[in-house]
Amino acid sequence: MEENKEACKSNGETRVNKEDNNKKEADEKEPELPLMSLNHVSRLCRNVEDSIDFYTKVLGFVLIERPPAFDFAGAWLFSYGVGVHLVQSNDEDKLSPPDSAHLDPTDNHISFQCGNMEAIEKRLKELDVKYIKRTVKDDQSGNAIDQMFFDDPDGFMIEICNCENFKLVQ
Hints:
Residues 1-33 are annotated as: Disordered. This protein is of the alpha/beta class.
């Protein structure tokens, strides 16, 4: 490395080449943050009761106790290791109108991993939830994932997938 520094001297300044910088960066990695997991997602609602009904019946969440210290209307739900916090909106203008006719997988959404896509699809049909279904195939590996997208009562998109079929980390 000293040879590289010496070879790069110019006008009294020492320049370090890219290879040296990469090694230095690898040696001086930032300590990892002490994050453990996703705790909850928060959803602003037109009607908390309608949203409780949706998340419990469609997705199997369980209503849990919400600390009384919160001075606004809402509810907490939990399942699958994550919470959904529902907050009653006091301003209708903050909410987009639900539009299940326009489900775009590239829009903002939350996604739940699923072990039985057929069971979820059956539940969506039974509850008359409009959804789109697609399969994405990785031509390189030959693996495919199935996805279903639908909106909650307030127009927040939800994805159900079997994404474990794609290897995400090399």
